[in-house]
């Protein structure tokens, strides 16, 4: 890939990944409740979901999914339901999403699954890769190496950015924030998840 094309792709993807959303909230919560190191399992779940979406987009299958109204609708509403559940839980649960006092650590497989489901149930990731990937491919050059470069770049950005969110969660847990501040943060997280669910519900193929 040309350096200019690669740079634009990397910056565009970095902005998208860094934008706070359901995945960022999830991994921040895992960081606060389980610590930075264990939160990596949730990050791997998120990254795995994006790898699948990237592979689908690279092989053209994403276009078929988007064109299939019923399949796209199933993915969309599954995501809406799960995010709404997380949002309501954050608003109504006494513990909330972010916690100062850690309880029993989540199982690694549970953390991975939660990260995977949150990201895979978000059809915006599918739409993003399906729309953005072709824009950076040079049809006159070998396609496979370009896809490999962009795929690895996306994977690295996912791990780095969400690790920042996990570190943020751990910092919040260790900072000794006052209960009312933590409660406010949890309410904001709950509302953000519900807003994300609403926005996904409005997504059409």
How many DSSP E strands? 0
Tell me the structural class: mainly alpha
Helix content: over 70%
Strand proportion: under 5%
Determine the number of helices (DSSP H or I, runs of at least 4 residues): 9
Give the distance, in angstroms, between the N- and C-terminal Cα atoms.
Answer: 30 Å
Over the alpha carbons, how many angstroms does the gyration radius reach? 18 Å
Summarize this entry quickly.
It contains 9 helices and no strands. With 205 residues, it is mainly alpha-helical.
Kindly describe this structure.
This protein has 205 residues and is mostly helical. It is built from 9 helices and no strands. The protein has helices at 3-18, 22-34, 36-58, 61-67, 69-92, 108-120, 123-132, 143-174, 179-201. α1 runs parallel beside α8, α2 runs antiparallel to α3 and α3 packs parallel to α6 (108-120). The longest helix is centred in the last third of the chain and has 32 residues, at 143-174. The protein starts with a helix and ends with a helix.
SSE layout:
Blueprint: H1 3-18, H2 22-34, H3 36-58, H4 61-67, H5 69-92, H6 108-120, H7 123-132, H8 143-174, H9 179-201
């Amino acid at each position: 890939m040309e350096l200019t094309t690669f740079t634009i792709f990397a910056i565009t993807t970095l902005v998208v990944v860094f934008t706070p959303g359901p995945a960022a909230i999830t991994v921040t919560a895992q960081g606060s409740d389980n610590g930075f190191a264990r939160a990596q399992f949730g990050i791997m779940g998120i990254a795995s979901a994006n790898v699948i979406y990237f592979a689908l987009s690279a092989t053209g299958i994403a276009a078929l999914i988007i064109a299939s109204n019923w399949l796209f609708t199933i993915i969309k509403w599954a995501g809406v339901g799960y995010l709404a559940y997380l949002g309501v839980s954050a608003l109504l649960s006494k513990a909330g999403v972010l916690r100062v006092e850690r309880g029993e650590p989540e199982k690694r497989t549970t953390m991975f699954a939660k990260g995977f489901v949150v990201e895979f149930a978000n059809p915006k990731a599918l739409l993003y890769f399906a729309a953005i990937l072709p824009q950076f491919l040079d049809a006159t050059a070998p396609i496979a190496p370009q896809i490999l470069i962009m795929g690895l770049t996306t994977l690295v950005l996912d791990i780095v950015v969400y690790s920042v969110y996990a570190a943020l969660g751990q910092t919040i847990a260790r900072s000794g924030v006052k209960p009312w501040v933590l409660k406010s943060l949890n309410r904001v997280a709950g509302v953000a998840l519900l807003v994300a669910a609403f926005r996904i519900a409005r997504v059409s193929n």
